[in-house]
């Protein structure tokens, strides 16, 4: 959480937009970036929720209360590490995500929600500025299938479509024209249901 009484003392704020007549002349940012202090003040609005619904509202399960508290306490490096633990591309989601986390924010029941998306964007931008973001090349490079499985998992909803998505991704990644060009591979992944999560194996 941020400041204990922050949500009662601080109003929601977002980054100001650059005037239209200026931003139509280039492809640069449309927002005026917050200072670290401004981001910290907004993060202070995060409440000490018994159940932080923002975690469930976020499709990635981002650890939102944790990095809000870290931003409030100006620990930007740890905030970046907690954000990147669940999100590979916060520089994108901090800009174009519809922010269901904010709709799920407990504070939004009777007030304006925490500016979660803007705080997320500021964490990654300030991480780049401070040199916290480092390249992490793999010790060995696996086949394209292993890379694609991680990406595709989040977009396919059932066993059959996920298998097809993985196969399609492998094809696109390598430029192959037919699945017959691949040796059979077996991939195990979870299938979500209303009752539980079970695991299945599909041979491609």
Describe the structure.
By secondary structure, the chain is mostly helical. Helices cover 45% and strands 7% of the residues. It contains eleven helices and two strands; from the N terminus they run αααααααααααββ. It starts with 5 loop residues before the first helix and ends with a strand.
Features:
204 residues, mainly alpha, Fumarate Reductase Iron-sulfur Protein, Chain B, domain 2, two-stranded antiparallel ribbon, 2 strands, disordered C terminus
SSE order and pairing:
Elements: H1 6-9, H2 20-23, H3 36-43, H4 53-57, H5 64-72, H6 76-84, H7 90-96, H8 100-104, H9 116-130, H10 144-152, H11 159-174, E1 186-192, E2 197-203
Antiparallel strand pairs: 1-2
Helix pairs in contact: 3-5, 3-9, 5-6, 5-9, 6-9, 7-9, 10-11
CATH class of the largest domain: Mainly Alpha
Please tell me what the overall shape is: globular
Spatial arrangement of strands, main beta sheet = 1-2
> How much helix is in the residues?
40-55%
CATH topology of the largest domain: Fumarate Reductase Iron-sulfur Protein, Chain B, domain 2
Order of helices and strands: HHHHHHHHHHHEE
Biggest sheet, open or closed, and with what strands and sense? 2 strands, antiparallel
Q: How large is the count of helical segments?
A: 11
Low-confidence stretches: 145-163, 165-204
